[in-house]
Amino acid sequence: MFQKVTEFEERIAEFFGAPYAVAVDSCTHGVELCLRYKQSKKMVVPTRTYLSIAFLAKKLGIPLEWSSEEWTDYYEIADKIYDAAVLWKRDSYVPGTMMSLSFQFQKHLNLGRGGMVLLDDKESHDALIHMSYDGRDRDTPWRDQNIKTYGYHYYMTPETALLGIERLEDAINRKPKQWVISDWPDISLMEVFRND
């Protein structure tokens, strides 16, 4: 059932030059899984980014530190965990990191929703797959498994992966938008963050 998801992961990993990729339902959930897996103790978030990343600090009970970094393509949140939501460049994977991509409707590869975590560690790859699939192995019906790991129901559907495969070639051949820091407001000034 999830063969298309595996195929899409392999093709995205190849394009970005990463040994492994884990498909998820959104970039933010990809970042969340990485933070949970590494048991991160602090998050550093640029004041100009998408607010769901900063919301993760509250959700996970992790102290949030604001940064005035003027980043391009990606930035580090914690423990070599990168938000790379707007990155689209061949062979741009940074070794030793977990980089979360976005396929949200405004991104270069527009699938409406979805994301991918790039990484180079097999053990971490396997753990993130189980975490994203409710703690289960995605190749066996869950009723036939003895689930040993907590999971978070953050997996990419086969339908989304198939759409990604169908649109990938066009995305590879098209020039991506170059995002600039002013594309985001200063979210640290928003009322929701004032008491944090």
Brief overview, please?
The protein is an alpha/beta fold.
Mean pLDDT: 96
Element-by-element helix/strand order: HEHEHEEEEEHH
CATH topology-level fold name? Aspartate Aminotransferase, domain 2
Query: What count of structural domains?
Result: 1
State the strand order across the main sheet.
1-7-6-5-4
- Report the helical percentage: 25-40%
Cα Rg:
16 Å
Number of helices: 5
Low-pLDDT stretches: none
Structural class: alpha/beta
Largest sheet: 5 strands, mixed
| Terminal Cα span | 43 Å
The amount of beta strand, in percent, is 15-25%
So, the CATH homologous superfamily?
Answer: Type I PLP-dependent aspartate aminotransferase-like (Major domain)
Shape: globular
CATH class: Alpha Beta
The strand count comes to: 7
**How does CATH name the architecture?**
3-Layer(aba) Sandwich
